[in-house]
Amino acid sequence: MQNLNAACLSALIMGVFAQPAAAGVIEIAAGEGAQERLQEALIMAQPGDEIVLGAGRFELSDGLSLDVDSVTVRGAGMDASILDFTSQQGAGEGLLVTSDFVTLRDFALENPKGDGVKSKGADAIVYHRIRVTWTNGPAATNGAYGIYPVESTGILIDGSKVSGASDAGIYVGQSRAITVRNSIAEANVAGIEIENSRDALVEGNIATRNTGGILVFDLPNLPVMGGGNVILRNNLVVANDEPNFAPPGNIVAGVRRGTGILVMANDGVLVEGNILKDNPTAHVMVVAYTQQYDDTRYNPYARNVVVGPNSFGRGGDDPQLDGAAQLLAAFGGALPPVLWDGLAQGATGLTAVSGVAGWSLNLTAVGQGLAGAQPGPLTVPAPTFAFDDATVGAPAELEARLTR
User: Which of 13, 4, 11 is nearest to 124 (CA)?
Assistant: First the structure.
């Protein structure tokens, strides 16, 4: 399965999860009894049904769940149909999806106690023009994730917006065949996060006012390992300067304020065509995982990471790094656009096109720390690792659902 190309994967999804003809339209209006009426519709829906949310604010006291294949949940717009979880009891998701071939589009979720929308094991899922917002702004008490698909094959997130998540606004984990595009991640700890996932295209998004803009990494001891083959292209990654507000102990609590793009312990990541500006620590950071782990499947090094042509504006002028004052003095007031810890497995590590300015710590061992650094200009080979657009992104069938 791991080496299926996009065409084969699309055929597989269409064969296994072929969507039946529409069975019916269920209209749900805002107002009294919305909790019971909406949850009943989600439970009683049949494959092919469309649940249509009317305009207005749906005041909900509990989370919602959907476990029926081939259902569409559609609102009147991300600013028109609003699922309001301000009075939610408990700490679960706003909406949990555990079925396949689901389309979620044109509605919002506000102030869920836990995650916004979580889909688990939900193959061939589409998030289109979904908004998740914590209206109080950045806070450690907000839910961890806004849009949160995990353990899935075939994910398309398009035209969506998330703000205020205490971990990641848009998170995709332990999944394959992923597209995240044309979306806005603002004022989260991590704007967009691709974790332990393969064959992902992150394109045309805006990541701003987060602690870190776009993160691609692998962690140990998870059911799905070996993330990679990720393309980050044509994104606007600007002014990611929000102080880190993740709860203590959270892995993203270690993300430095002012990080544009972070690649950690991943294999095969292309960073090209992005606009990066006003990220005060660094526009691009490539690092190894430094914490202790006991997973023999895990590789802590960043491998085959290619930094191609990008537009680098002002940045690196207020780094949240130890010895920042000395570093700024050494580099004339601002760090170079690309920072690498210098750690590689064999000959693989970071490569860059000619003309990309960078700096390496030239560390020699994982976990060595800055005390062992020997900083110097970035000297890396020209890229040889090949990326093929046909191997990344959501299957074509998911794209077709955007126009239905």
Answer: 13
- The model carries a pTM of 0.93
Amino acid at 37: R
Return d(Cα 193, Cα 173) in angstroms, integer.
8
Q: Is 400 exposed, middle or buried (0-12, 13-18, 19+ CB in 10 A)?
A: exposed
CA distances from 358 to 148, 282, 294 (A): 33, 10, 32
* 372 within 8 A of 293, measured Cβ to Cβ: no
Give the C-alpha distances (Å, rounded to integers) separating 272 from 192, 303, 378. Answer: 16, 16, 18
Token couple for 174: 């332990």
DSSP lists the bridge partners of residue 157 as 127, 180
Residue 1 lies in a domain: no
End-to-end, the C-alpha distance of the chain in Å comes to 29
Question: Tell me: the pLDDT tens digits for 299-314?
Answer: 999 999 999 999 999 9
pLDDT digits (tens, 9 = 90+) for 334-353: 999 999 988 987 667 888 87
Q: How many domains does the chain have?
A: 1
Q: What is the CATH number of the domain that holds 21?
A: 2.160.20
Task: Give the DSSP letter string of 93-135.
Answer: -SEEE-SSS-EEEEEEEE--SS-SEEEES--SEEEEEEEEE-T
What is the rounded CA–CA span in Å between residue 306 and residue 272?
Answer: 8
Q: Which of 34-38, 45-49, 279-283, 317-321 has the lowest mean pLDDT?
A: 317-321
Query: Among residues 60, 67, 17, 14, which one has the least CA distance to residue 37?
Result: 60
Residue 364's pLDDT band, with cuts at 50, 70 and 90, is confident
In a domain, 67, yes or no: yes
